Amino acid sequence: MDKNHFHLIIIGSGPAGCTAAIYAARANLNFAMITGLEPGGQLIKTPTIANWPGEPEEIAGALLMEKMMDQARNLGAAILSDNIETVDLAKRPFSLKGNKAEYTCDALIIATGASAKFLGLPSEKKYIGKGVSTCAICDGFFYKNKEVVVVGGGNTTAEEALYMAKIAKLVTIVHRRDTMRAEEGLVVQLQKTPNIKLELNCNIVEILGDDRGVTGARIKNVNTNATQDIVCQAVFIAIGHKPNTEIFSKQLEMEHNYIKIGYGAATATSVSGVFAAGDVVAKNYHQAVVAAGLGCTATLDAKAFLAVLNLK
Ligand code: FAD
Ligand code: NAP
Questions:
Q1: Does residue 124 sit in the same domain as residue 230?
Q2: For 206-257, how does the pLDDT look when each residue is reduced to its tens digit (9 = 90+)?
Q3: Which of 91, 156, 271, 277 matches a 20 to 30 Å C-alpha distance to 215?
Q4: 69 near 19, Cβ under 8 Å?
């Protein structure tokens, strides 16, 4: 067998990829997991995770992902440090071109995750993990009785704001238009929530802070250009997520750039032998435990597919 041919390749090393690898190793499959540029995935960016089952004490995201990678490695997983640039799913074996090598495989699990969209401000980058967050469910707990800002005007923004209103003293939504884009029902709930305030027609132009983290947000009115500083201890960026699916576009059926699954098996995509798991498919469920569950499902689906080909 060619050195870079595997029965199964898993692209991505976040919770979905690592869980897929753990199950593949336990099933004794001939496989490799390709880590990508962010070994461990999105969770390595978050200092504490309080909702991972079985970790009653908070655990650092980097430590949790190190443990998952170690578990896969200890079980015998081949973990390859490479980033896939192009794929050809038109025929089997599938071909993958990475920065370092080329690969072929009979079955593929895509677990490339999704990236939260950011505003693109240098100050935003500076305070990631120190008050700037893209996940209220994950980080909201740390801002109990504090003042927070949520940016955006969509359903995610509304849901993040409603979630934070139960925890924080005051939630200010900063949205660049004169009306929210979120659906009517959510907008009504926002209006009915006394500790949610709207700053419409405004963009955040700078996130303010000191050594300890965020202390405020400077907003600018799009009509008048007037600026104003809002005091807050956290800024939740809720302007949408971008699934990492560019390299698969035009080769797999997608919906809003998320890979569509459920073609026969739960994680099967529109191309036979290609499976997908995690944030790359879970449009409304961006949670590590969901990604891990789907990673497990994808390996079970891939294993059944390989068994039909007599490849174990
Ligand atoms: P990811 O974790 O995004 O991993 C994707 C992997 O794919 C990475 O390893 C990357 O390197 C790799 N990859 C991407 N493209 C390529 C390519 N072309 N070639 C090779 N590899 C590639 N969820 C919770 O449940 N609890 C929390 O407390 C929590 N906190 C969060 C805090 C922050 C700041 C963020 C951003 C998210 C948080 N989440 C939390 C959400 C959680 O991180 C995601 O739901 C989860 O990481 C998704 O896992 P995944 O494996 O699908 O993808
Ligand atoms: P979205 O609908 O694309 O909304 C993103 C919001 O962020 C928009 O208001 C947009 O402003 C704003 N925005 C985007 N880029 C920005 C920038 N650079 N600076 C400032 N503001 C910016 O994204 P989403 O809310 O994440 O929703 C994505 C999809 O998931 C939608 O189909 C949504 O319906 C669905 N969803 C559904 C639910 C639900 O049903 N409960 C919950 C969450 C998500 P503009 O308005 O100016 O474009």
A1: yes
A2: 999 999 999 999 999 999 999 999 999 999 999 988 999 999 999 999 999 9
A3: 156
A4: no
